Structure formats: C-alpha cells, structure tokens
Amino acid sequence: MKVLVIRLSSLGDVILSSAVLTPLHKKGFDIDFLTFKPFDQLFKEDYRIKKVISVNKKEITGVKKILQFTKKMENYDYIIDLHSNFRSTLISKFTRGKVFRYRKKSIQRRLYTKPFFRKFLGKPFNVVESYVETLKPLGVEKHNPKPELILLEKEKEKVKTFLPEKFIAIGAGARYKNKSYPFFDRVSYILDKKGFKVVLVGDKSDKDVDKTIYPKTVSDLRGKLSLRESLAVLSQAQLTISNDSAVAHMSRAVKTPVLMIYGATHPFFGFYPFPEEGEYILKGLKCQPCHIHGKKECKLKTVECLNINPELVVDKALNLLKKSL
Q: How far is residue 103's CA from residue 10's CA, in Å, rounded to a whole number?
C-alpha cells in the first residue's frame, strides 16, 4: 500500500512529523514524503521513506500551479495531510488517494491567548500525538510517539573532528524576538565556570541578531553547518538548552535531552518535550502566552516572561543532565 505524507513547513513542524514514519513503516506501507526545500535534507538516506518529494514554495503558489504540480504526482492509496492549510488541502484534493487530515485545533490554540477562555480548554494540545492520531483510520496506532530522524554513523564521526569531547548545545535563536531568551551569554559563562564546554547551534540569521558576547571557550557554529551537520552535532551533545524553536525539536529527533525556555508562547500550543525527552521553563504569567507564534509585541514593553535568572536555567539544565545519565 502506498501512502503520501505531506508536511511542507516549517522546520520544527517537519521534524515533529517524522513521528509518523516508523509506525507506517512497521505496518508495511510504502511511504513518499512531500516537503519544501531544504527540509528534504532531513530525510536523506532514511530507510523508512521510498521517495522524498521536495518543492520550492513558488512552484506551488496558486491553484493553477498546484494543479500542474499534482499532474506529475503518482497515485496513492492514502494521503496523510499533516499540514492542513489551503495549499496542502488542494494538493491532496488533486492527487489521487483517500485523504486523512491532521486536526490542528487552531481555534482552540488561539483562544488560549485569551485568559478568559483558558479554564474551558482542557488539557494541552500535543502536535506529535495529533500527527500520529491521523493514522488511526489506517489501523496504525503508536503509543508514546516521538519524532525521530535517521543519521548515518559517518555523519556523526565527521562532526566529532571539530567538537569538544563533552559539551552542552545551546539554541539561542528563534523566529521572533519575544521567543528569544536574552541571557544565553550569561548561561554560557556560568556553564564555563562549572567546567562545561558550550556549542552554539543555529543558522546565520540567529548569529546576526545576537549581539551578546560569549566566553572565548564557546564554539559558535551558527551559520556554518548544513541541516544534517547540525543534527549530527546535536546528537553528540550531552544536553541542549533552547528557545521554543527548531533546535529543540532537532534535539528531540536525535534523542538528546532538551531544556526548552518559553517566552511569548506556551506548552499548550503543543510543542513541549515529553518527560522522556526533557523539560521546560515557563514563568506562567497571566499575559503568557500573548500570541500563538510569539510574534506579537509585548504589551507591557518589558518581555517579563523571558526575565528568567540564568542561574535557574543552569540549575535546571544540570539536574536534567543528571537524570539522563
């Protein structure tokens, strides 16, 4: 039986959608995976996938282009739409196959930004569990689902040549300012004093907006690595400390414990690590969360949600590290 899995973007969401691959593979499905470039790199040489279909956003912008694109697609027995937006809905409509669509509960998550509604909304949404729940009509169930990306041993060995023997990774970047913890430099200084090496992971834009000064002992690899090299680096870390961003989910997908720091967003939106994967820090202010994606300006102008003592971050990180050893 042939199945097409669709998750086009963004990086963190594509990583988390990997949770459906092992259950489908174990049930004997032939899997194709459709995503935007460069996220196809995540699935390079992934034994669970028959074919990764990568596309530029411009190639499937508008109904006409989407129709042209789908004419080149194969026929499938089933289509698993894990994006559930206008573009993915049209792709699945124009591609032959029975469609099962991820329920993203957008209204529920957006209502959580309004304090009045919070007490009525029940337990936190979980993206990974909801992705896997989409597979139930196919007779595929997975308890305790986790994201998982496949790395080759040679990729891990390659990054070891420029990494400290033992280190803690930090993902200091985030898409929006109010998701970015501002004291990672101080966290790095504290870890350095305690004898821990620190490696910064992220893209060039993360480095460009970060004006803080880190200890000279910190290895700054931001903007120097491919996606797969970044995954390989994170796979060698003892622990990752990260904002609510893709670096946190990359760590989860390579089984490295992660401590997530929440600012303008919230675990209720579904991106928190499971207890086996790590922990998170959340101040739990009345105004938190202020936006589902964290891009809204702080109405208090203080971004108090990210005013978290670096000593607390380090203590939480080291306690998590002890638990994972």
A: 17
Q: Is the pTM of this model over 0.70?
A: yes
> Hey, which residues does 17 pair with through a beta bridge?
none
pLDDT value at residue 125 = 85
Give 143-157 pLDDT, tens digit per residue.
899 999 999 999 999
3-state secondary structure of 119: helix
Q: Where are the alpha helices (DSSP H) in the chain?
A: 11-17, 21-26, 63-71, 86-94, 106-111, 127-133, 153-160, 184-193, 204-209, 227-236, 246-253, 310-324
CATH architecture assigned to 155-324: 3-Layer(aba) Sandwich (3.40)
The CA-to-CA distance between both ends of the chain, in Å, stands at: 41
- Residue extent(s) of CATH 3.40.50.2000 domains in the chain: 2-138, 155-324
Query: Tokens in use for 180?
Result: 């970015």
